[in-house]
Sequence to fold (143 residues):
Amino acid sequence: MTASTAVLPAVARSRPGRTELGMISINDRVVEKMAARAAIEIPDAGAAASRFLGRSMAGASALGARQTSLTGLPKTSADVDGSRVILDLSISVRWPASVPEVTDAVREHVRSRVGELTGLTVTEVSISVTALVTQLPAPPRVH
Fold:
């Protein structure tokens, strides 16, 4: 009795656009959510500071606006054009982390994760740092 070896054809990764089975398109909003999730995978990056009329609002939490946090999702926008995407992120950075190091890490991680998850080519990742998080909230108390 001889053992036969079956050779399976390599499965090609699906890329957005036209395939032999039809059209694949990924909405901008889906890419934005993926980019935001990827950004917070970097420990020193988090949600952007609250803004009003284009200005960062210190103490906005007293007015009911969301607080700057390292656990919240950053603001993102994506422009998907065929198989290419341009991303814009607004983040906060933990003090005293190096802003250039954190933004470089976020940029490379977001670029690779979005490309890996969507098959899109990320051509640009613009990052605005809107706040430094100097005070982290106390951990919740267990009763």
